[in-house]
Amino acid sequence: MVHRHAAPARTDGRLMRFAALAALALLGNGPAAPDNRQIVEHFARLFYTERDVKQAFETYVAPDYVQHNPGLPDGRDAAIAALQPMFADRNRSFEVRKILVDGDLAAIHIFAKPDRAARGAAVADFYRLKDGKIVEHWDVIQPIPEKSANAHPMF
Q1: Distance between CA atoms of residues 152 and 148, nearest Å
Q2: Average pLDDT of the segment spanning 44-62
């Protein structure tokens, strides 16, 4: 009598790779990377629109925040202390015109006016993020001239 045995199952690399990918899909690949666009948009809303400097900075800015504006010291608490009075002044206005985010860098283009009668300035705030927090800031301020050499708007 001849006994026939089933051939052993073939284990090839494709099956193993599929199993590994399925496990990753089910388990995930660690914590999700922070959504820097969402972080910057929420920060901008709290800071520039709602003018809640303390909440914006305590929520989205690292304690050891590096400040490149030569008129302000480093640190989240120093930024809050310097900026709260300016943003509490309801005669001033801050209109966010553009938000750009690319990886860990963000730029916020703002139309700022010290009072209602002023022409104001175009402000570009640049931020660097790390691990879901703003860790560094630069800014450029361009006063709006009385007369422009061209017909293009600044915003």
Answers
A1: 8
A2: 98
